[in-house]
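JOB MANIFEST
job_type = single_chain_structure
chain_count = 1
residues = 560
[input]
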Amino acid sequence: MMTLTPFCLIVSFLQRCWRARWIRILAWIGVGILMVYVGLTVWMNRAGKRDWKAAQEALAREGVDLDFRSAKGIVEIPDELNFCAIPLLKGLAIIEDGNPAKGESAAKRKALEALGPLKSHTGSYPPISSKDTDMPVNLREWADWLRKEGHPMPVTDPDNAAREVLGAMSYQDAAIAEMVAALFRPHSRLTPDWRLGPFPELLLQLQVPHLGALQSFSNGLSLRAKAAAQAGEYARAHEATLCLARIAEATCQEPHLIGLLVGVTSASILSQTTWELGTAHCGTADDFLRLQQALEKFDLRQDAVRAFKQEIVAGVDSLLYLKRNRQLPSSSLDEPSWDSMQKLVWLVPEGWFDSNAAHVATLNLEYIVKPLRDRGWASSLVEGERLEARLKAAKAEIWRHTDMIVAVLAMPAFTRFVDRAAYAQSFLDRAIVACALERFRLERGAYPDALTELARAGEKPLPLDILSGKPMGYRKTTGGRYVLWAVGFDGKDDNGHRPSTGSYRDKPTNRQYEGDWVWSYPTAEEIAASRVPAAPVSTKRSKKQTVIKGAEDSTPKVEN
């Protein structure tokens, strides 16, 4: 009897299986799927190669260098010319051994964060901006809260809560003195510049814990300036505001989207603080000249262009990293489920990564960077709406637009970033004009009848409305004040009207906002009326009572 070899047994088994009709059907289905996969892979690879080549050419024309490790064109600033090189701030961005909680720089960040508003045992504190639409911050509420929390109160003055709050912030005095001594330095750039290395394995892994510390410190500087203004300590109010301006200047120059967001928030805090100085008629003509010059340094349009260019580099770097390695760095994986998901990445054709990288780059260029750089804020907002429409259409038929999957997932929020930056720049521009108006009042005894009277030889022209391209609206009021306005997102001049329906649409950074962006002041009677104590209530916190936490309460709640 002949003995069958294992090979013969296997062949015999397969032959018997093949006689089963359902097995033949499954086999042909498998072959068909394989052929489709191979065909799609060849097609995607060719299309991806073509798309990526075109994108690279477009990026080269726009001067976007994808090699972020090259450090081309970066000029180091000598310490003696850099405001951020003072001991308080120098080396704030250093991350030791990849651990943001380790080393001297971590201790410095923690100390800087502690210079913000005094902390609460409950994790909350009163608002730094008024809850009302156009009222200064309620410092009586702050003084009462400080006592309740048990913070030291070196000054006791029941009739002047501002003096009490200012006294409680004496822990900032040494830091303020150090910064004031360096205000003359022409540059303000955080050190070290991350573009000089060392670099993370993936650009999206870049750690920026220093921005949180700076945000907290900005809140503290703003509160100090407002307390000093209401206390009549005008020199101290302007010192804190100028220090805040240098911090905001530094954060705005961080060349990535996170830096832009923190910078935009800091710039809005600065503008809102300037509004409070104007409310109190706080300072001399020279004080407001220095503040005006500090505000004029900001160019959020240029900062946004730089940040979005860097975002292109970060997005492309991530996709090409996935293409090369077929997995994310282990440190970026937060959930075990990612491990199994990453195995599927090996099935994705290389061309898919190329096509998605190409669309992330070209959509950023065509709808954000180029309109913002070449045509201004108004055009960038229009193009932003077109980008949203295109992404929405692609999402509705994502099976036809697999080359835009990453763009559909990552880019919808980008237009909101542009909206916030546009509003912040308009807020800064109104603050500049407000400083010029205060200087005019201090020198002439009254505000001008028209903005054209503010023109001065040898000084920069006053900024125009960023959306209309025309001079801002202005009129004097019967109370000896004025109303200054720029058109809002709808592009219509509503003669200085701001909506007051109480809905989310009334928030001036909301694209659906219908009204002007207004800078106006309350009368002394209106301020006094807003300070009338409420009826006694239970000490137990109501479920409906708003608790404002962390840096969120520093974002201006007012549209002044």
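[summary]
Residues 533-560 have pLDDT under 50 and may be disordered.
Strands lie at 473-476, 482-486, 517-520.
exit_status = 0
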